[in-house]
Amino acid sequence: MSSSINAFTDKADLYSKYRxxxxxxxxxxxxxxxxxxxxxxxxxxxxxxxxxxxxxLEQNSTVHAVEPNCSMRVVAEQDxxxxxxxxxxxxxxxxxxxxxxxxxxxxVVQAFHWLDTDLFKAECKRILKPDGKVIVVYNRKKRDSxxxxxxxDLVKIYYPSHNDIINHWNxxxxxxxxxxxxxxxxxxxxxxxxxxxxxxxxxxxxxxxxKNDEQFISKVKDIFNEHAREGVVKIPNDTxxxxxxxx
Length: 247
Hints:
With 247 residues, this protein is an alpha/beta fold. It has a single domain, classed as Rossmann fold. The protein has helices spanning 12-18, 24-34, 51-57, 70-80, 117-127, 146-158, 173-179, 197-205, 214-227, and strands at residues 41-45, 62-66, 86-89, 103-109, 128-141, 185-190, 193-195, 233-235, 237-245. The strands form two sheets. It has a seven-stranded mixed sheet with strand order 3-2-1-4-5-9-6, sandwiched between helices. It has a two-stranded antiparallel sheet with strand order 7-8. Helix 3 (51-57) links the parallel strand 1 (41-45) and strand 2. Helix 1 (12-18) crosses helix 4 and helix 6 packs antiparallel against helix 9 (214-227).
């Protein structure tokens, strides 16, 4: 995760304000089908500003939010300090500093691609209880959506070296499959996003690569205006997850 530690230093407020949440049906699935409960002790790796951690804390689980970036971690601490079962951890996913065999579950949300997967896998084996599971989660915009394709094409023009990051469309699945030794459950839940123009622009500016470039922002607004109905756009999106044990 070392390459990502400073990637969001200037993005914490934007990230907290404009990044979408995750499908409510997915959270219900974790608690009704996977085994999450009020007694669960969960390590949320690369927890950022605590968007996903909050969803677990609202279910009264204990969450150790592991985040190496100070700016992101401080926002999470400010927002989540009201939860008595929230613990902020200044560490990376490869070296969490958590005790051996202490976690029931490990979640890694929008962050797997930043990790050294070999080191992370070893750390999961160390901190997970027997039969503990790892859940790799992403919000993924749907490829067949015109508004999503236009955003991706715009990023290719302005940020060509980062055009695969914005939607995680090109998330390489081989590292995920290898991480789970090809033994995992894949689930997907619809999680469409409704944005006004401020949210639409803020979301794209929260990306690690994005700069506050007037011309780029103008083009983003053009896409919004082309697709807006009654002041908002609908962004077709899924919450996807890979769930498995680590052996």
